[in-house]
Amino acid sequence: EKGGYDHFMMKEIYEQPNVIKDTYRGRLNANKGIVQMAGIEDNIEKFLNAERILIVACGTSWHAGLVAEYVIEEFARIPVEVEYASEFRYRNPIINKKDVVIAISQSGETADTMAAIKLAKENGAFVFGVCNVVGSSISRESHAGAYTHAGPEIGVASTKAFTTQITVLTMLALRLAKAKGTLSNSDYHRYLMELEIIPEKVKEVLSTNDITKEIALKFKDSTNCLYLGRGYNFPVALEGALKLKEISYIHAEGYPAAEMKHGPIALIDEQMPVIVIAPKQGHYDKIVSNIQEIKSRSGKIIAVVTKGDTQVRELSDYVIEIPETSDALSPLITTIPLQLLSYHIAVLRGCNVDQPRNLAKSVTVE
Ligand code: M6R
Question: Is the whole model's pTM more than 0.80, yes or no?
């Protein structure tokens, strides 16, 4: 049942090229310039009239929401706010009839996310669910939605659910951009093409498995770890840190790289592994200077870089090379080596990867 892998988590990591394809199958056709999902087509006016989009979720799904904030705002120019469902439900938030609330949940059973939806509905908002489990409570409670087609995710640490959530939300952003004319024709088509070939790139980046294993051997006894990224890769840094914490029990923090100098830089010494997501796109020069700041304080640098990069390589102790992708789609690629790294560290530490202590696959109590 683990398909020849030692753990479900590894199986699910390796399923990502296929399940991303399953998620966009029948919805995305780059040649024809089409991106459509029934739940959106049927409610397109709600999205186009929305004064803002509110995203509610927990854990990894909340990280997917953060990626979506960047993508939707950039592509479709609709203001987006992302909230932890547990905070949203108890803070008497302002919810308007013209708000579209997107609830993201792999299981579709998370109690706080469910409560956030109910509150949004009571206040007249339109609720759109992005769930993996078909027929789950959240998918039933939402007015409309789009399923991720990741298949059953057994490992408690979410992997393929995250990348398929990002796939759905990127398609949503592209669909709205098309309707609103907020992306140029050429950009729109370029993103469609790129999204269609993302599974190939994910396949390619899975070949970093060996190098991540080597890196894991070096850092398996660390007690702390920092993950840094900027822009689209800031949420990926948060997700990388969460993955390490939950399965290896190593304390890890994710930060937007530029926030380092507002505090966390004090933690850096020669014992501190710092994982920096530094692809060639986006804020490359800025992240290079952040890496220099870490280097001058003797931190150990593990960098995720675009293939062929030399500048970051020179500054780093270890590099993990990934294929080139545009900035907005890069989380689908950059997140993969971080999943692998956590996996190998957890295995080397003898942890129960699929069933980490104190955690449940779906959190049905608040
Ligand atoms: O089923 P959900 O997506 O609503 O679950 C939300 C979180 O409980 C979940 O993502 C959790 O953070 C994972 N264990 C992370 O790997």
Answer: yes
